[in-house]
Every structure is written in C-alpha cells, then in structure tokens.
Amino acid sequence: MAEIKLSKHDRFSVCWRHQFLQGSWNYERMQNGGWCYSIIPAIKKLYTNKEDQVAALKRHLEFYNTHPYVSAPVMGVTLALEEERANGAAIDDQAIQGVKVGMMGPLAGVGDPVFWFTARPIIGALGASLAMSGSIVGPLLFFIVWNVMRFAFLWYTQEFGYRVGTQITNDLSGGLLGKITSGATILGMFIIGALVERWVSISFTPVVSTVQQQKGAYIEWDKLPKGAAGIKSALEQYSSLGATGLNQAKVTTLQGNLDQLIPGLAAVLLTLLICKLLKKGISPIAIIIGLFVVGIIGRVCNFM
User: Fold this and answer.
1) For the whole prediction, is pTM greater than 0.90?
2) Which GO terms describe its biological process (predicted)?
3) DSSP letter string over the chain?
C-alpha cells in the first residue's frame, strides 16, 4: 500500500480552521469542538474508510484546552502521529490523547505572557499613539500587524510540530518553555513600565507655597515697550527666567514638588496600587469605576 502523506494544502487547511479553535468552546470539554473541526481535512485525507473517519473524529472530541495560539505545535505533532498511524504504525488512541494532554498544559503557560502581556500591548500602544495623533494608520497598523503575526505563528509552529513529531516533547521537558516564559515576562514588564509615564496622567493641584519674587525674577508686563519690540523683549526674558517668570507670585504646587523629587512618581504609585488590588482579586471593572469616582471627587474638591 502506498504511503499516505499530508500535503502542504492539507496542513494549510487545518491551520486555517485552527483559527476558530474557540468557536465552540464549552464547559464540559472546552476546545474539543474547535480542535475536531480543525483536523477534519487531515482525517479525510488519511482515512478513506468511513468507520475509521468516525473513530478518528470521536478520538479528537476528547477534552482539550490550551492557549489558542500555542495550540498550533500540538496540532502539528498530532498530524504527524495520525499520519504514522494511517500508514500502519502501532499508535493507539491513548498515545495520541496523551501527547495532546502532555503538551497543552506547559504551552498554555507560555501563551499569556508572550501574546497577551507582551506582543499585544506593544503593538496596541504603537497603534494607539498614531491614532491619538489623528492618523487612521494607527488602528489599521494594529489590525494588520497583529493578524499577520498571529497567523504566521500558527502556520510555522504547526509546521515545526509536524516536522519534528514526538521529538518536540524532549524540548518541552528540557526547560525551553520556562526560559521563553521568563524572557517574555521580563520584556512585558519592561514595556508596561515604560508605558506608565506616557499613559498614566495624575496631577495634584494643592498649593504648597506662594512667594512674591523680587524685580528681575519675573517679567514686568506693564513696562514692556509697545509693539514688536515688547514681544521680542518678553520672549527673551521668558527664555532666561522660565515659567516662574510669567508672574510676580511664584506658586509651588504639590505636583511640582513630587515632580522635582521623582518625575512620574504619582503615576508609578497609582500603577503599583492597581497591581496590588488586582493581585488581591478585586475586579478590574470595580477598579475602573473607583478611579472615575476618585477623579470626579478630586476635580470637584479641587485637589486634582
């Protein structure tokens, strides 16, 4: 009997369907429906007998759950196993299910830090920056880059899993996933830390002190010459005196003192407070509502 091989077209069909892994997510077996739907093109190619096809589909309706993107290498290994089985290798149902269960757990822990906490915040921040400047390129950039990256990852990691077959399990037990997870977590925290200064805006308005400045330390507007000469003189004095030279009274606010101490200190403290609340299990919705309430009260009471 001629050897049955999955063509590139067959594998691409599986990869395309694999995007919809969570399309029929359920509480009993979670992603089993999406997984079974994804592998149908390969099952039809490998098993020509209807009874074998039915048995294969039942085999792939068992419990399955992992991150939807890192599921691709699991699919690649499973395709390799199914191909070997269709060509007469002694691979039973338990072996295939065992490989799936053994890989989905470790890989699930990699997907979140790599995709949700690193790749998406970076691309989203880049797109948001362009959108805030009024450019339509911002949302388009996020949509295109994210989906190209996502599908490319699905395709190439599925091909990697198909090519190496069961050998990939040796890499999983060799600490490779732990290194990837640690690296992605560090990079994600670095990016989030850099975004705090840009995205978190908080300002305290209470006045700490008001000092009357001596002559020469501020611009005497009533003594400026008229016309262009006055404007030129004012600009020259402003460049040497700074913002404190605009008025005779030098007002120092609480926010000004904090900025002199550590620029962005209030934003960092607010971010750390929110992280601590999230760690304690407080709902993000409750935190957002709380921030709105505090902001409104602060504005009404004139301390923010």
Assistant:
1) no
2) phosphoenolpyruvate-dependent sugar phosphotransferase system
3) -PPP---HHHHHHHHHHHTTTTTT-BTTTBTHHHHHHHHHHHHHHH--SHHHHHHHHHHTTS-B---TTTHHHHHHHHHHHHHHHHTT----HHHHHHHHHHHHHHHHHHHIIIIIIIIHHHHHHHHHHHHHTT-THHHHHHHHHHHHHHHHHHHHHHHHHHHHGGGHHHHHTTTHHHHHHHHHHHHHHHHHHHHHHHH-------EEEEEEPPTTSS--GGGSPSTHHHHHHHHHHHHHH-GGGGSSEEEEEHHHHHHHHSTTHHHHHHHHHHHHHHHTT--HHHHHHHHHHHHHHHHHTT--
